[in-house]
Amino acid sequence: MVSRRSQTMSYVVLLLFAAFAIYPFISTTLVAFNAPDVAVSGLAIPREWSLDSFISAWNNPDAGIGRSLLNSILLSVSVVVVSVFFSILTGYAFGTMRFFGSKLLFPLFILGLIVPYEATVIPLYYQFRTLNLTDTYWSMILPCIGGSMAFGTFWMTSFFKSFPKELLEAARTDGSNRWHTLWRVIVPTAASPIFALATILFIWTWNNLLLAVVMITQPELRMVPAALNYFVGLQYGSNYQITCAAAIMVALPVMIIYYVLQRRYGADVLAGSLKG
């Protein structure tokens, strides 16, 4: 039995961590709702709530927040759809089949989780420049898919290894081939890990700053992390209201998705970790 004192200490620690986590968001939000020409500090509540900072950030021609949001949505959705689809296939193969080279191929996939992502960006840039792929959507989509496949393969393989063998045998007895077994028997029961994987990959892709800065220089192809970087320069670096407003707009799409689906997301992450 857990003592009352231990429970109290646990709640205190959790509240402290929650306060540290939520403070930057509350502070950023309060600063963003001040007018650009008003002095601000910390958690001070605005005397007059204003949307002028959001309007100034949105209308900034150098950053192009609106176009950047569309670019990031296109990138994130494309990466998630393709990565989840192929992660299901690779996870199904490694988790339920035994074939020549499987013990060698799986560690090669997992190698993508070990090698620091930053170490691959510069070599990728030179390769894509040789292929004339820099300043294109492909220069973002292909590396993001490649990076997502490492984690996606590991995640889905863990699920498929724990899938009841009796159901697979029953499907084979009924005459179902491997392809039909995957999509008609396994995938309908794998909504939890698939949903959790899609959510994680979306957030990872959306927040990818380094690749967006290195691969993309044309303003019409800029992603939101790179667009937000424009507000930290000499022109807007001292105007915290506009910078915070831009940060809120960049984070808002992910925050909305996470807030709406937070209960299921938490349960799915727990289920995926237990299956691993």
TrEMBL record:
GO terms (BP aspect): transmembrane transport
PANTHER family linked: ABC TRANSPORTER PERMEASE PROTEIN MG189-RELATED-RELATED (PTHR43744), SN-GLYCEROL-3-PHOSPHATE TRANSPORT SYSTEM PERMEASE PROTEIN UGPE (PTHR43744:SF8)
A Gene Ontology cellular-component term: plasma membrane
Transmembrane segments: 12-33, 69-92, 104-126, 138-160, 181-206, 240-261
Protein localization: Cell membrane
Keyword Ribonucleoprotein: no
Keyword hit for Glycoprotein: no
Source organism of this protein record: Nonomuraea aridisoli
Gene3D superfamilies associated with the record: MetI-like (1.10.3720.10)
Location, primary (coarse class): membrane
The organism's place on the tree of life at top rank: Bacteria
InterPro entries membership: MetI-like, MetI-like_sf
Official protein name in the record: Sugar ABC transporter permease
Entry keywords, A to Z: Cell membrane, Membrane, Transmembrane, Transmembrane helix, Transport
